[in-house]
Amino acid sequence: METEKCVLHGDLHHENVLDFGEKGWLAIDPKKLYGDRAFDYANIFCNPDLSVASDPDIFRQRLQIVCGESGIEKAACWSGS
C-alpha cells in the first residue's frame, strides 16, 4: 500500500502538546523525522496509558476521530471492524 510521506514531529504525545493561551495548543520537542504521515498519530492510541489501546470501544472511537480529522483512510491504519 502506497503511503504519504512527510516531515513528522516524531514524539507527539499528551505531554508534548501544551496550551499556550492566546497562541493556542502547540506541539513541543519535535524529533524531525521523515516518514508515513500516520506515524505521528500512533501515540494517541496508547497514551496516556496502554489501557486505552486495549479497550476496543475507546480504540474505535479514537480511530474514527483521527481518520475523520486527518483524512487518512481507516483501511490504511487498521483492518479490524
Notes on the protein architecture:
The chain is α+β, with helices and mostly antiparallel strands and 81 residues long. Helices cover 28% and strands 17% of the residues. It contains 3 helices and 4 strands. The strands form 2 sheets. The protein has a two-stranded antiparallel sheet. The protein has a two-stranded antiparallel sheet with strand order 2-3. Strand 2 and strand 3 form a beta hairpin. The longest helix is centred in the last third of the chain and has 15 residues, at 56-70. The protein is globular.
Features:
alpha+beta, 81 residues, two-stranded antiparallel sheet
Number of E strands: 4
Cα gyration radius (Å): 14 Å
Q: Count helical runs.
A: 3
Instruction: Quote the beta fraction.
Output: 15-25%
- Class based on secondary structure composition and strand pairing: alpha+beta
Secondary-structure element pattern, one letter each: EEEEHHH
Summarize model confidence as the mean pLDDT: 84
Low-confidence stretches: none
Helix content: 25-40%
Q: Tell me, what's the shape?
A: globular
Largest sheet: 2 strands, antiparallel
Lateral strand order in the biggest sheet = 1-4
Question: N-to-C terminal Cα separation, in Å?
Answer: 19 Å
Short summary:
This protein is α+β, with helices and mostly antiparallel strands and 81 residues long. It is built from three helices and four strands.
Secondary structure layout plus pairing:
Elements: E1 5-8, E2 17-19, E3 25-27, E4 33-36, H1 51-54, H2 56-70, H3 74-77
Antiparallel strand pairs: 1-4, 2-3
